[in-house]
Amino acid sequence: MPRDPLAWIVAVARNRAIDRIRRERALAARGPWLATLAERDPEPTEEPVATSVSDERLRLMFACCHPALGRDAQVALTLRLLGGLSTAEVAHAFLVPEPTMAQRLTRAKAKIQAARIPFRVPPDELLPERLEALLDVVCLIFNEGYAASAGDAHVRRALCAEAVRLAAMLVELMPDEPEALGLLALLLADDARREARVDAAGAIVLLEDQDRRRWDAAGIAEATRLAARALRLGPPGRYVLQAAIAVEHANAASAADTRWDHVAAYYARLAALGADPVVELNRAVAIAMAGDVPAGLARADALAGALDRYHYFHAARADLLRRAGARDEAAVAYARALDLAGNAAERAFLERRLAEHGA
C-alpha cells in the first residue's frame, strides 16, 4: 500500500486526466489537417469503403499508414497525428534529435499534399500491407507509456492501456496473423509487471528486484498462450520473438531462475532478421547475464557509435561495467546516461547509482 493512499489516488487520477486532455487536444488540433487531406481525395464522390475495422481510431491509423510513404514516415506521422505523442516523444522513439524529426514530419505532410495521396480507410484486402507499420505504431505508443521519455511519472498508464486495446483489436481483426498475436502477447507480458515496476514513492524498481507476487498472473498466462500460438503459426517474426523473450522473463520464478541462454538465443534470431542496434544491445545484456560478462560488454562497446544518444545504452553499459568491477568507468557511463535521461524517475535512479559509485 502507498504511504498515503488518498494522495496516491489523487496523483494517479490527475495524471490520467492530463493524458486524456492531451490526447483529445492532439486529435482536435489535427482534425482540420486530416479534413484537408480528405478534401484532397481525387475521387471525393466515391462511396465509402466497406471495412471490418470497427474502431474509429484504428481506422484512421490504417488510413495514415499509407504505403506511398516510406515505412518510418508512416509510423512517425501516425504517432504524431493519432498516437497522442508529441514531436519530442516521436523523436525519442526513433533515437533522433527533435528538430530532425520535425523536419521528417514536415516532409511527410508535404509529400502527402503534393502527391495528393488520398486519406481514406483502405478496404479489407489492403489492410495486411499496412499492418507491419501499424504494429510498430502500437508498440511505440506502449513503449512511451511503459517508460515515459520525460515528465515526473515513469509509467503513463493511459498510453499503455490504449496500446493494449489497439493490439487486442488487431488480433480480433486478424486472429491468425502471428505478428499481431506476438505484439499483443508482448504488451500483455510487459504490462503484467506494472504494479511492481515502481515503489510507493514512484522510484524505479529493477526487474531483478521486483516482487513477482505483485505481477498479474492472469495477464502472464494469456501472454504465454498467445505467444505459444503465434510460434506455432510459422517462422517467427520480430514481435513473435520479442513476445517469446517477454514470456521467458514473466514466467521465471525469480531473477536467478531466468533462462538467460534462451533469451540470448531469441535475441540472436531477432538480430538475424535485420540490423537493429537496440536488439544488439539487449542481446549483449542477455549474454552477460547468462554468465559471460566480458563478451556482453564487448558487444555493448561496439554499439557506442550507433547508440550514443540512447540513455538506456549508457545505463546498460554502466551496469555491465559495475558487474565487471570497473567502478570508475561505470560512474562515467551512469553520468552520460543521466545527461540524456528526461524522465524524473529515471534521473533519480541514475543519481542513486552515481552516489553508490562515489560520483
Structure description:
With 359 residues, the protein is an all-alpha fold. It contains 16 helices and no strands. Among the domains are: 1-150, no CATH class; 175-201 and 211-258, no CATH class. The protein has helices spanning 5-39, 56-64, 71-82, 87-94, 98-114, 128-146, 157-173, 178-191, 217-232, 238-251, 260-273, 277-289, 293-301, 311-323, 327-340, 344-356.
Question: In summary, what is this structure?
Answer:
With about 350 residues, this protein is mainly α. The chain has helices at about 5-40, 55-65, 70-80, 85-95, 100-115, 130-145, 155-175, 180-190, 215-230, 240-250, 260-275, 275-290, 295-300, 310-325, 325-340, 345-355. The chain is about 65% helix and about 0% strand.
Structural descriptors:
single chain, 359 residues, mainly alpha
